[in-house]
Design goal:
Blueprint: E1 15-19, E2 22-25, H1 26-35, E3 44-47, E4 62-65, E5 77-78, E6 84-89, E7 100-105, E8 116-117, H2 128-131, E9 144-146, E10 157-159
Parallel strand pairs: 5-8
Antiparallel strand pairs: 1-7, 2-4, 3-4, 6-7, 9-10
Amino acid sequence: MPGLRCKRDLQRGQFIDTYRGEIITSDEANRRGQDLTEDENNFFFDYDKFRDTGAFETHRDYVCDGRYMGAPTRFINHSCDPNCAIYTVSYNHNDRNIYELAFFAREDISRGTELTFDYYDQDEGLPVSDARADEIEADKGYRPTRCLCGSEDCRRYLFT
């Protein structure tokens, strides 16, 4: 899928935009995901950054679905060597499960360059060595997708 390209030069550290969309429960995201054909892309972004997997959870997990109500950032593709970084930003409320996802330039980016970020969140606990594995164990709960970024440091798989 063609990615998002910047319209002007960006400086390292510069704010680009946020990932926006409809906030839905993970159950609704699963339902919507099952309705997609193989040719359709999902634009789901899990709001699970601060989930404490070891604690009893009383809240539901949320997902930002950028498919119908999203910003251009939904077209930023993955790269194992990205030029953008994404950070969680929270303001005006005290719910750590709802936050903004903000994109920033990791380096100077020339006008016309495709914007990319790493879909793999290294805080999620899967070691990078496992991310390079040719075989992924089904019981880990990850759906491996072949990575086609072409980076010298490509991990060969995306976990979506």
